[in-house]
C-alpha cells in the first residue's frame, strides 16, 4: 500500500512540475501552453470508438473537454507514478535515485508519440507538425522535468 501511495504522490508531483515548466516556458520563452481541451476531446472521442483523427481541432467539440483533458493529464501522471513505484520496489522507495526514474520518465513519452499525437492528427512523434524536432525536444525536456518532479515526490515520501 505504501508503494501505491508513494506512486500517487510521485505522479502528482511530476505532473505539477511539468505544468510549472510549461508556465515558465510560456512566460519566459513565449512557448504556447498546452491546450488540454484537445486531449480531452481526443479521449472523449476514443471512448466513442474513434481513436485516430486527421485533425482533432476540427472534430466535434465535447462538453467539458478542457476539464476532461486536465483530469486525463493528471490521471496519466498518477498511473505512471504508481507503476514505477510498484515495480521499483521497497529498496528503491527507501533510497530513491534519479537515474532509473529519469529513464522511465523519458520512456513514458512513447505513449504521446505513438498514440496521443497520431490520434490527434499530429503524426507519429509529431511528424506532421511544422517543426517535429522542436516538439520532440520540448517533449523530452518536459518528461525530464516530470521525472525530476516524481523524484522529489519520492524523496518527500
Describe the 3D structure:
The chain is mainly α and 157 residues long. The protein has one domain. It is built from six helices and no strands. Helix 1 packs across helix 3 and helix 1 crosses helix 6. The longest helix has 30 residues, at 65-94.
Write the layout of secondary structure elements.
Blueprint lengths: L1 H28 L7 H11 L17 H30 L3 H10 L1 H11 L12 H25 L1
Helix pairs in contact: 1-3, 1-6, 2-3, 4-6
Distance between the ends: 13 Å
Radius of gyration: 16 Å
Structural class: mainly alpha
Q: Summarize the biggest pleated sheet.
A: none
SSE string, helices as H and strands as E: HHHHHH
Helicity level: over 70%
Protein traits:
73% helix, 0% strand, mainly alpha, 157 residues, globular, single chain
Please outline what is shown here.
By secondary structure, the chain is an all-alpha fold. It has one domain.
